[in-house]
Amino acid sequence: MTFTRFLIRRILTGILVLWVVATATFFLFFFRPVDAVARQLAGRAASPQVINEVIRRLGLDQPILVQYWHFLDNLVHGNLGYSYYNGQAVKTIIAQDLPITASVVVGGVVLWLVGGLAVGILSATRPRSTFDRVSTVGVLAGLSMPTFVLGELLIIAVFVPLNQRGFSWIQTGYAPLSEGLIPWMGHMILPWITLAAVQAAVYTRLSRGSLIDTLGEDYIRTARAKGLSERRVVYRHGLRAALTPVVSQLGIDVGALLGGVIVVEQVFGLSGLGQDSVAAIDTGNLPVIIGFVLIASLFVVVANIIVDAAYALLDPRVRIS
Amino acid sequence: MIFQDPYGSLNPRRRVGAIIGDPFVIHKTATGAQRKRQVQELMERVGLNPEHYNRFPAEFSGGQRQRIGVARALALRPKLIICDEPVSALDVSIQAQVLNLLSDLQDDFGLSYLFIAHDLEVVRHVSNAVIVMYLGKVAEAGPKGPVYEMPRHPYTAALLSAAAAADPKLAAARQRIILTGDVPSPINPPSGCRFHPRCPKAAELCSQQEPPLESKLGDPATHVTACHFPVEAGENLAVADRRERR
Amino acid sequence: MSITEVQFQAQAVESAPEEAIQGRSQWQLTWRRLRQDKVAVTSIVVILIMVVLAILAPVFAAALGHGEYQAFTGAGLSSAGIPVGPGVHGFPLGTDYIGRDLLVRILYGARISLFVGLSTTLIATVAGVSIGLVAGYFGGVVDTVLARFIDTVLAFPFIVLALALAAIYGPSLLIVIGVITFFSWAGISRIVRGQTLSVKEKEYIEAARSLGAGPWRIMFIDILPNLLGPVLVLATLYIPTAVVFEATLSFLGIGIPAPTPSWGVILSEAQTYYQVAWWYVVFPAFALLITTLAFNLLGDGIRDAMDPRTERLFAARRKRRKDSVTLKDSEMPHTPPASVTGAG
User: What does the pLDDT read at residue A40?
Assistant: First the structure.
């Protein structure tokens, strides 16, 4: 089938998945004895009057399916409820903090892809060279390092000493793009490295292995025998095939990315969506958590669609299935 | 059943004793020490050293592995063993051993074999009756002698003419019938007689009507052929073939 | 008949006296190669030391007189209320923010990490292998459904799930084990399914079927032994993933709840003290890193030991040591398991 039809099919599947997730989320949170839900929403020390008020306001005593309908209805209209911490609309909170999370994600993904692929390709084209060996060690270190440990270590080893010497470009916390590209990057560079490092290690190993296997294929030998320059052989012919497992791994890693983002925000004091949700756990702020879960699912579904599209572009055989 | 590939038909991760003992386990006919004894007897019977009970298939040669396969097939004393090209993957000298083994076993155990092969000499050596098939249909069938001496189906004749002869002078003197074209796809077989696109004797009728499998004039009742224009005595298809192509 | 003469000669060659060694299984060969890999051996030693230390945690606690929850606000904190450093006042690795012995807490943390890592991986492996086998062998609708399920689980953001569950039920060890297990089985299942699909086509499976073996017997007795190699590598590589995942969840506060001394919890506490108490970060981080690294290196080592392509390297090393036993070609495992790329 054509690419467009493939894309449409994937989008429709994505919408279906989102609906399933929303439903599962709803039932996970609300399909419990009314008291328990209310107590959780109202806070741990709430008095019976407050609990009753909560039940009344949220309609928790209504039949579960009616509640579900309201939930979906609200969702479609963009209403994600209100934070029990300060009454702000969850939608607003998300809108405010999304740019922060987005900054982290975008920079991190770019760094990990570029870094991982570059080192992987260079290693594959120079097997067993010094570069290859050094990068193998680096990869192993990266693979074994939990994100938050790396973050803390970077703060201790980079941020603190640099600041102490008066070099203040690198900072923790967040500076929006509107304040300038340089400050923004200065705040983001350590989070990006932290987010990217572990994943880059995985992708280096993956792309290196995949490219080495591909370059051993007969059709590459033919290309070389035809007299094509090595650069052309590797980049034009080899990469296309070697990249497919990398792309498919990307789809799976979107989930891991979210986890990494939450950790990075926590370590570097960035008040993005990840921070919001973790903080919300402490205060039992369910609407914020629910909002985060839904946004996260939306992100995963969209990212997967993009990845599938990229895969279909790389490998036309996929569109038939 | 005995399989063609001595390297693929045995599980590389299991010991030979376990492999041969499988039928006993699956059908619960022998257990423990008794099973081990029976397996070792089988090993001896097919010419393997029973002390190799605990070895892995990788440690045996192709011929020995095929013997393992024979032992496995024999375990439950079947009446019929299907041999799917059991010697095709073996060296010629080993082929002889395995064939002799199969023949001895046949006598000792009263076995019947359904022996599938491509090598006509092997078939002649091994069989009592022969069935020649083409594209899923029986072309000719009968006792060995009549089929080999007097093939009635053009396909059989072509096959026989292509079989290697030990004597080079004989081979040079023989006329080879060369069939044109390739074997068609079995999913979309030709109409009527499936052999007609390649047959040197094909006529209009052959593409329209599938010939019945019956005994032709002058043949014993057990020798049946599926052909509208069977090969006649003294007819030389090679000559006819060359004449047509010119 | 000339063939008979050939037959006698051939038979004589085939039954020539062979060495009276038992057949060497894939595992024995792998172990031999592994033993020679210095990095792998070091990793095994490190892991064993870690396990022993974890088991002996109460012994250390008793010997030092410091329980893992005991807060020594007097001797354990400086006059400014800051944790004391290593070696001060009888605290070998220093104290944490309320004066608890850091060494003791790290050792108890090792118990948690190892327990979570090993138990989740074990359960996930059993579940993953079973489901992968079933999906790969039965094919058809069963496979389609299971494969889709596996893909969904793989792409799932598990931290989000952990977050949600912790929000509803409060953080706990049970949630941690449940989430990590649920996360791990899918990766194993995917690889097992792939391998099953290719092993299924081999002739010896057809042979087993022709003997009358039922699907379950074929899956577990014929197919499974061919998968155990890659599965072992994968499981060994999943253990550190589980350990890191647990630490991360605890770090965020949605895993093992404080005051239980999980390494993640300690590192989370250490965040506000790193400028004044470097030991608070460095020692737990080191413990975590060395555990993870050891398992990763071991997994890589097992994978290399199973791959006969590296056999030449090992053979060269052995010749250099003038080993008296030389390997026959027949000792190389016949069907090498496909190598596992990445940790799934």
Answer: 67
Q: How far is CA A106 from CA A100, A103, A246, C211, in A?
A: 10, 5, 18, 58
Nearest CA in chain B to C206: B9
Contact C67, C60 (CB under 8 A): no
Q: Do C14 and B96 touch (CB under 8 A)?
A: no
User: Whole-angstrom distance between the N-terminal and C-terminal Cα of chain B?
Assistant: 47
DSSP string covering C278-313: HHHHHHHHHHHHHHHHHHHHHHHHHHHHH-GGGHHH
**ipTM here:** 0.76
Q: Is the peptide bond before C83 cis (omega within 30 degrees of 0)?
A: no
Q: In chain C, which residues have their Cβ closer than 8 Å to the Cβ of A140?
A: 293, 296-297, 300
Neighbouring chains of B at 3+ CB pairs within 8 Å?
C
Q: Examine residue C20 and state whether it is found in any structural domain, yes or no.
A: no
Interacting residues of C174 by C-beta distance below 8 A, sequence separation 6+: none
Helix axes A90-125, A181-215, angle to 10 degrees: 40
Contact present, B and A (at least 3 Cβ pairs less than 8 Å): no
Q: Report helix, strand or coil for C81.
A: coil
CATH number at residue B116: 3.40.50.300
| A202 lies within 8 A of chain C by CB | yes
Q: Give the per-residue pLDDT at C308.
A: 62
Report, in angstroms and rounded to the nearest whole number, the Rg of chain C calculated over CA atoms: 26
Do B133 and B234 reside in the same domain of the chain?
Answer: yes
Residue from C47, C152, C154, C159 to probe the interface with A (highest A Cβ count within 10 Å): C159
Interchain CB distance below 8 Å, A143 and C289: no
C157, C167, C341: residue with CB nearest A255: C157
Buried b (16+ CB within 10 A) or exposed e, A22-40: beebbebbbeeebeebbbb
- B9 within some domain: no
- Asked whether C223 and C73 are in contact (CB, 8 A), the reply is no
Q: With CB atoms and an 8 Å threshold, state whether A255 touches C274.
A: no
pLDDT in tens, A70-104: 778 877 777 777 776 677 777 888 888 888 888 88
Per the structure, the count of domains in chain C is 1
Distance from B246 to chain C by nearest Cα, in Å? 44
For the segment C61-80, the average pLDDT, to the nearest whole number, is 78
Q: Tell me the backbone φ, ψ of residue B230, rounded to 5 degrees.
A: -60, 155
Q: Is residue B101 part of a domain?
A: yes
Per-residue pLDDT band for C260 (boundaries 50, 70, 90) equals confident
Domain that holds residue C176: 26-342
Q: Which residues of B touch C14 (CB under 8 A)?
A: 47, 61, 63-64
Report the candidate in B106, B120, B135, B132 with the shortest Cα–Cα distance to residue B194. Answer: B135
pLDDT tens digit string along B28-87?
Answer: 888 888 999 999 999 999 999 998 888 889 889 988 999 999 999 999 999 999 999 988
Position B6 in a domain: no
Helices A239-268 and A147-154 cross at an angle (nearest 10°) of: 60
Q: Supply the range of the domain harboring residue B117.
A: 16-126
| Closest residue in chain B to residue C215, using alpha carbons only | B26
H-only helix segments in C139-223: 140-155, 158-169, 173-199, 203-210, 215-217
Contact: C23, B22; criterion CB under 8 Å:
no
In a domain, B90, yes or no: yes
Which of these three, B80, B95, B126, is where a domain ends? B126
Count CA atoms closer than 13 A to B217's CA, side-chain side.
6
Chain C neighbors of A141, CB-CB under 8 A? 293
CATH of the domain at C120: 1.10.3720.10
Residue A208 pLDDT class (50, 70, 90 cuts) = confident
Question: Among B126, B161, B181, where does a domain finish?
Answer: B126
Which of the other chains make 3 or more beta carbon contacts under 8 angstroms with chain C? A, B
